């Protein structure tokens, strides 16, 4: 089974709108923040392109996922965060500036890092596969266009940038819901036939991202607020981007490769909400202890 042209078009439009919306939230100050907070961004970079793909590969190996499904797992692990991670960082009282800086850096770096990581891991997952590196790099490069356009609009008019951010976010969300609904109905046999290990691998990817992101950051002496941010930025991947890359570059294997990202996308909002709740409870406990010491 493959995605039909309408589904591919919807995915492409969704990704472009989401990237346009993200670009309309960015300014030159975000890049200056990277210079001011190099440690947090560097740890975030290692999180995103270091242990997250490794965790994805390990889960794929442990649960013995089919070859192309395992490849999509690694692709998902290597995909940078998006605006959702920025939103959850805000809810968790994290460092939103750091979250946005990490998103910007990882999005731009993805053009080079994703093909590199797929080269590194694909040989152990799929024998004889020809990774469409040029297509992936081209697709990622093209995504920089709407991001740059969004930034340009924001530099000219904050009012229009906010409108575009709202319209792009809402439209993108509607497309996501429509596509998920379509896959649940049109391809329900594929989803229903998914084994428990398929669900476990997708769900654990986000959970392990949160745990490793936080505790590695703390071990490297990041403050609690920044460690929360790295954790959420690490565990929350840009699922629409993963799905877009699959639809545009892995023709003939889309449905098999879409399964893990779809499960991940359906469950990450739940696990991210739980992680945010845990962080808020920790913050409240710390605040109570501080007030008791006064």
Q: What this model shows, in words?
A:
Helix 1 (5-23) packs antiparallel against helix 8 (158-186) and helix 6 packs antiparallel against helix 7 (133-156). This protein is mainly alpha-helical and 294 residues long. It is built from 13 helices and no strands.
Please count the beta strands (DSSP E, at least 2 residues each): 0
Q: Which shape, going by the Cα principal axes?
A: globular
Please trace the helix and strand order, writing H or E for each element.
Answer: HHHHHHHHHHHHH
User: Regions with pLDDT < 50 over 5+ consecutive residues?
Assistant: none
Largest sheet features = none
Span between termini: 64 Å
Radius of gyration: 19 Å
**How confident is the prediction overall: mean pLDDT?**
79
H/I helix tally: 13
How would you sum up this structure in a few lines?
With 294 residues, this protein is an all-alpha fold.
Which tags fit this structure?
mainly alpha; 0% strand; 294 residues
Please give the structural blueprint:
Layout: H1 5-23, H2 28-36, H3 38-62, H4 67-78, H5 83-91, H6 96-122, H7 133-156, H8 158-186, H9 188-192, H10 196-219, H11 224-235, H12 239-249, H13 254-293
Helix pairs in contact: 1-7, 1-8, 1-12, 2-6, 3-4, 3-6, 3-10, 3-11, 4-6, 4-13, 5-6, 5-11, 6-7, 6-11, 7-8, 10-11, 10-13, 12-13
